[in-house]
Amino acid sequence: MDAPVQEYDYAMNVKVEEFPIQEEIKQEQETKTKYLPYKCIYCETCFAEKNSLVIHLEKHNREKPYQCNLCRKCFAKNVYLLQHQRTHIENKPYKCSGCDKSFLQKVDLMVHKRTHT
Q: b or e along 28-66 (b: 16 or more beta carbons within 10 Å of the residue's beta carbon)?
């Protein structure tokens, strides 16, 4: 690794050690290209194996036939639609016994309860 370059930060009135990070970024990109050669064309996520990319691409190409009748958002599975539709209702069935907060999902209540301990 190269020695740090001394610079002077005039705004802060101090000397600053700045490591040449451009080289590190370049090396990281080369390593990623070398070990993760399969790149998603939609989100640029990289994979080591072609099969992993194929499985990932299904997320982008998946049909979403279940549509919310209130906001028109679409979902791949009916269970996701049902979970989403609960966000439109005022009634949040999972109430915290330690305060006045309520939640749509039980898991959110469980996470919240940790704040009281």
A: eeeeeeeeeebeeeeeeeebeeeeebeebbeeeeeeeeb
Domains of the chain: 5-61 (3.30.160), 66-116 (3.30.160.60)
Query: pTM for this one?
Result: 0.38
**Which are the contacts of 16, defined by CB distance < 8 A and separation ≥ 6?**
6, 7, 8, 9
* Blockwise average pLDDT, block size 10, the chain, 117 residues: 49 49 65 77 88 87 89 89 86 90 89 89
